[in-house]
């Protein structure tokens, strides 16, 4: 953008939604690392029961999100994306705040389930921008929006940890509610949508979200790719601190080392996402996506052999660069292949697939780690990346 030039409306929306994405990412990640500890304060549970309840509290949000996202997407294509952003922001403001008042574990799980049904702020931010941004700026815009969410997800656990340690595990939920209230105000007053319902939605036989899509197989490949990316990314989360403790032989500040190792991919993604988004605008999203998958597989496999936390941290940092070439680029590919009339429904289906990945990945990792060893989780993750590479390669091969 030239200095002194007035911002276009899509640019103003992008900056407002970046702030909303940041608030959502920070708030939602603020309490997640401490969910098992919060669950432990709600009753005297044996280890297996505590693990079960913590898993339910974590996954219930993603399960309900996977079920209801297509319904919200269909409504968004009829009413506009801004109402859906406000619905998500207000819904999470209420449910997050109430979660902080949970008196038993089932109340916590129930509120997390409801929260998932009303979530979807980041997904709708992508959909709104995809429907309004000039196509030549799609990659850069998706990359920029991603930095908002990722930046929040980096700061959230650190800040939440400090607050929880000083004031208790309930306070991060109240802060989550406050952040979503800020997102509500930013969206209400900072986002303007030029929405016109498509006439095709009113005609019989034209209700399918895939009706106007030329390369349907590519869009489906992006759904599956998004699911596998989330599964691979989240599969490491349940075992990363345990693996770090094993590498350190129980000596030193394991919590600090685990936090650094967990945060490094986000730092790299934050730095790389806008640049890789611009690169996809110049050389094509397909090349960036395939390159990201190859790099991701080449980084996960060596983690099986690591003997020091330093090497693990270095590999995790470069995984973050690969991640920057994955999720934002799949969003770009979908926006380029989807007509404006159905973009919200397509992005909501994609959110459902992402949510399924967020459930499948940790479940697979827990099973593999329990039966074999922590190291075999990295082999499993490499296999997920290779399957993803095969799916994307096949989809683009069909297009020739």
UniProtKB/TrEMBL annotation:
Localization, UniProt: Cell membrane
Domain Major facilitator superfamily (MFS) profile: 13-400
Highest rank taxon of the organism: Bacteria
Parts forming coiled coils: none
Alphabetically ordered keywords of this record: Cell membrane, Membrane, Transmembrane, Transmembrane helix, Transport
Keyword DNA damage applies: no
Membrane topology designation: Multi-pass membrane protein
InterPro entries assigned to the protein according to its UniProt record, in alphabetical order: MFS, MFS_dom, MFS_trans_sf, Tet-R_TetA/multi-R_MdtG-like
Segments traversing the membrane: 15-38, 50-72, 84-103, 141-167, 173-191, 212-233, 253-276, 288-307, 313-334, 355-372, 378-396
Main location: membrane
Name used for this protein in its record: MFS transporter
